[in-house]
TrEMBL record:
This is 15-hydroxyprostaglandin dehydrogenase [NAD+]. PROSITE patterns: ADH_SHORT. Keywords: NADP, Oxidoreductase. One of its GO terms (cellular component) is cytoplasm. It comes from Beauveria bassiana D1-5.
Amino acid sequence: MTPVAIVTGACSGIGLAMSKELIHRGYKVFMGDINPRGGEVVDALTPSSEAAPPPTFVCGNVASFEDQYALFEAAYAFAQYIDVFLANAGVDDREDLLAEPADSAAFTAKPAPYDATTTEINLGAVLQGFKLMVHYSRRAQYDAKAAGLASPPLSRMVVTSSTFGLYPFPTNPVYAATKHATRGLVQSLGRRAQQEANMTLNAILPAFVPTGLAPEGLVAQIRDRGYLTSMETVVKALDLFLSETAGLPDYVQRIEVPAATASDGPLTGECAEVSMTEIYLRGSVPFSNESQRWFSEDPDGIWQNSYQQKRAADKK
């Protein structure tokens, strides 16, 4: 069967590099992008063989649930399953939260509301995408059973986060906040996603990769310092999360405690920091004491059971 993938923010930068890698591997790739000219980029891509299906461009805004739903519907209609979802679309801060007012009149005027574009795309769209991936992973199992077919293999969701999901970033603090949030989402839900929805959930945290997101002139300054992260290394991190085993290749180092992966199967709940030519698997920070470990790991299921009861009561 032809594997099927969805990539958002797919027509430039990291999304385009990942799309090309998946196409090279023989995937049918549904490339979502807000730029209507993205179709020209997709049309120029060549499948891995004459028998491989060409990629499909779907124009839309990931911050719109309806647009993202349409992207998933198109992909699922192709083969009644989705193997890989790369939640890659992202933007930097749309405003400086500490910008000085233009003149003294601003002190007595009503301030403008916060521009939520960054949180809607970098975090909200990832949450919507996760819900959609859970839905279609479960739907694939349901449809296969109804048709008397074998259960589909594990689906994979990989979020493009950032190293600024680990470190402070005073220039783009909202961007950093959203990337911290997606890292927390992955580390919190990775194991549950595998156990309850037949899918893995991981994140790639690239350092500075030269893309169109950066201001003009910044790339050259970072290149002069030798601090650029190569696109090839980012793609190697993707390969780590498409692998069928949890074994780590020699070029990957593990830092801090392991995350959610609990078996020899595919990695889940993991965050791969990609810096220059290096890849580091970053678990959660060390627990300060046993009470914090107990709260986080919930070995007795107290948190889980209590919130299941609360949410059931809220629906009544």
